[in-house]
From TrEMBL:
It is an enzyme of class 5 (isomerase). Residues 298-568 form the UvrD-like helicase C-terminal domain. This is DNA 3'-5' helicase. ATP binds at A26, G27, A28, G29, T30, G31, K32, T33. PROSITE patterns: UVRD_HELICASE_ATP_BIND (PS51198), UVRD_HELICASE_CTER (PS51217). The keyword ATP-binding applies. It comes from Costertonia aggregata. One of its GO terms (biological process) is recombinational repair. Keywords: ATP-binding, Helicase, Hydrolase, Isomerase, Nucleotide-binding. SUPFAM superfamilies: P-loop containing nucleoside triphosphate hydrolases (SSF52540). The keyword Nucleotide-binding applies. The lineage of its organism: Bacteria, Pseudomonadati, Bacteroidota, Flavobacteriia, Flavobacteriales.
DNA sequence: ATCAAGCACATTTTT
DNA sequence: TGTGCTTGAT
């Protein structure tokens, strides 16, 4: 973040914009976040009621950060009612807060795991093999979600997701054959969702968007609550999100910031051309540009600019560094990912001891969560503190879901997934018996009957206990107490089921869950928003984001993040892992120009995170880019990879290259004589 | 019917 | 790395 407090002219102009709607096109590092923060603060200082300003971002983390920073610029508690949220959690809040308007308040928000289980139930005994094509339930979910997010037809979505956009006779024929089957399954999935009163992530947006679009009264009600909508990362909004925003054009003022060159969510339906259409779609709107980069030195921008120039797409963007020149970026050649990981560890320890840098000055970026696994192993062994961004969500851990399943039943007795999970959690009840009990539940859904169902289902004391537990949880109006009570009842069972790592890993999560629960006023909001809330992982252990909990005992740590989760982050030293052939662009996108270009933007986002030192590592043995088995033999298709590889024509002058010798022990002996590292040259996978 | 252990397998990116 | 599926023992 910039440390000086002055805004430049362009930023100032945007902040004080006096018209109706504004789009700020802001390149990487040009102070996008600062501008949105200053805008919010400006509005509040000008007397706008903070509760009528809604900030929308893509991650909870970004939302919290912006809100905190706005508050810190304002005197006293002026910004206390300012609200920042993701699109999804905002919609969830609206649904809960206006139960009559949206009519979905008693519904349960389900996560992707739950979606998958429903889809599996639906597919059940259907045969999903069509000739050589086999459709997996997860793929059905993806197609369904893609279609709804992009507003594209099923046929078109199938073509894009399942057939990689191929257009030929065979494809058309296959498409025609499978489409009716897919349609039937998706309809069944929808029916099941409705019957059990589930809302998946897309439904959250859809429910709110459709109601606002169709219902004048809904619009005027919300118009009383929201005056200003500030939207971050506009280039990542997809057609569904746009339908959500569209009604607000007539009832409040939009202030959007974005950068077409940083659009990296097309797999979720985002289309960066949307930002180009802003002026056409939004009447009474203007577009401003911010082009001065405050973050990086010129060398870092040179290589980033070079990357964009190589694209067939015109971005009309050339970042210029206000800060002037610095170090040349480094391109480090390694021969496998363990060597890479050890080299990165060496580098960080060297910076820490010799250059007086802190661990937190380092940001390590990888394409996928999976890729950074070996790095994490090395960091743990070599005692480098780190946190990961973009890991598995706290609420998705098995032991947490077990406990939450009971609360979900209380919240929504139609919730079959929760019933199955809770019932099979009981000793001696498997799938068969659980679904039999479920039948009884469905037949007489009367809430009064539920305790007796428990009693009938389970012999003797157990059933009685659970029936009582259900009753007493229902009585509580405090979410934290509900968690306590559920934990009390389930702790023994949990400890037994997860006895392998209960004490070390799982037990400690429950006090955390309790604290999280305390921050939600109702059970519905806890279940829904808790799912949407991001957590960080500290040395492999789940930790909730700092705004929710004061877990910052160790502030100084390296950040390991996927590039997708790193938007808005920046660091003194930024290391981008595995900028190798078959990774940039990824072997998956090789035959698709749009995907190749998206990969280019991904790399661009990664590079522009660096403030002073940018390091790209590259794996020289071409097969390790993805897992060995996923790729043909080494040397197989070198030609096509060589043609598309982004760094292929990289001018020598833009980087300093070095190659790490492939030698056992060279690196580790030199740097850490007293740790024994048995991993070099050994692939344990 | 339930559960644990063993084996095979496949891995973008996120709300 | 973990997780999903089959198998064999209770």
């Amino acid at each position: 973040m910039q440390s000086d407090h002055k805004l430049n002219d362009g930023q100032q102009k945007a902040v004080e914009f006096n018209g109706k709607h504004l789009l700020v096109l802001a390149g990487a590092g040009t102070g996008k976040t600062r501008t949105i923060i200053a805008r919010a603060a400006y509005l509040i200082e000008r007397g706008v009621d903070p509760s009528k300003i809604q900030i929308l971002t893509f991650t909870k983390k970004a939302a919290n950060e912006i809100v905190e920073r706005v508050k810190s610029t304002l005197p006293q508690s002026n910004g206390n009612n300012l609200s920042g949220a993701t699109f999804h959690s905002w919609c969830n809040q609206l649904i809960v807060r206006f139960p009559n308007l949206f009519g979905a308040a008693s519904y349960t928000v389900i996560d992707p795991d739950d979606q998958l289980s429903i889809m599996k139930m639906v597919c059940g005994n259907h045969n999903l093999e069509f000739g050589k094509l086999r459709i997996k339930p997860q793929e059905l979910i993806d197609v369904y979600s893609f279609a709804r997010n992009t507003k594209k037809s099923l046929t078109e979505s199938l073509r894009q997701k399942l057939f990689k956009n191929r257009k030929d006779g065979d494809t058309d024929y296959e498409l025609k054959t499978i489409k009716p089957h897919v349609e039937k399954l998706l309809r069944a999935y929808q029916a099941k969702k409705a019957e059990q009163r589930y809302l998946d992530y897309d439904d959250l947006l859809l429910v709110v968007a459709t109601q606002l679009k169709d219902n004048q009264e809904a619009r005027s009600i919300l118009a009383q609550h929201i005056e200003y909508l500030l939207v971050d990362e506009m280039q990542d909004t997809n057609p569904l999100q746009w339908t959500l925003l569209d009604p607000f054009v007539s009832i409040c003022k939009l202030f959007c910031v974005g950068d077409d060159a940083q659009s990296i969510y097309s797999f979720r339906g985002a289309d960066f051309k949307n930002v180009h259409l802003f002026k056409d779609r939004v009447p009474e709107s203007e577009v401003y540009k911010l082009e001065k980069n405050y973050r990086s030195t010129q060398e870092i921008l040179d290589i980033s600019n070079w990357l964009l120039e190589k694209s067939p797409i015109e971005y009309n963007k050339k970042l210029e560094a206000i800060r002037g020149t610095g170090e040349l970026p480094q391109l480090v050649n390694v021969s496998d990912e363990w060597q890479e990981a050890n080299w990165v560890a060496d580098e960080i320890l060297k910076n820490y001891t010799d250059e007086d840098r802190m661990f937190s000055d380092h940001l390590i970026l990888s394409r996928s969560q999976y890729y950074a696994k070996s790095l994490q192993a090395v960091f743990i062994r070599r005692k480098i503190p780190y946190v990961t961004y973009g890991g598995r969500k706290f609420m998705q851990a098995a032991h947490i879901k077990d406990l939450v399943s009971l609360l979900r039943i209380v919240n929504n007795p139609y919730d079959e997934i929760a019933w199955i999970r809770f019932l099979t959690f009981q000793e001696g009840i498997g799938e068969v018996r659980a679904s039999r009990i479920l039948q009884q539940v469905i037949e007489k859904i009367d809430v009064e009957e539920i305790p007796s169902i428990f009693q009938n289902a389970m012999p003797g004391e157990d059933g009685k206990k659970i029936a009582e537990l259900y009753e007493s949880i229902k009585e509580k109006d405090d979410v934290g107490k509900m968690v306590d009570m559920a934990y009390e009842a389930m702790a023994l069972g949990l400890a037994f089921r997860y006895r392998r790592d209960w004490e070390e890993k799982r037990k400690g999560d429950f006090p955390v869950l309790r604290l999280l629960a305390d921050s939600y006023p109702t059970l519905g909001e806890f279940i829904g928003e808790g799912l949407l809330d991001n957590s960080e992982q500290m040395n492999g252990v789940n930790v909730l984001s700092e705004s929710k909990l004061n877990t910052a005992e160790n502030k100084d740590h390296v950040i390991i993040s996927t590039i997708h989760s790193a938007k808005g982050l920046e660091a003194d030293v930024c290391i981008v892992l595995n900028v190798s052939p078959k990774a940039f662009p990824s072997a998956w996108s090789l035959d698709n120009l749009e995907e190749i270009e998206e990969d280019r933007r991904v790399l661009y986002v990664a590079m522009t995170r660096a403030k002073n030192r940018l390091i790209l590592t590259r794996n020289t043995s071409s097969i390790t880019a993805v897992h060995n088995r996923a790729l043909p033999t080494p040397g197989g298709q070198k030609t096509s990879d060589a043609e598309t590889y982004f760094l292929n024509e990289l001018p020598d002058a833009l980087v300093e290259q070095k190659t790490i010798a492939h030698q056992f022990g060279k690196v580790r002996d030199a740097e850490t004589p007293n740790t024994i590292d048995l991993s070099s040259g050994m692939d344990f996978s």
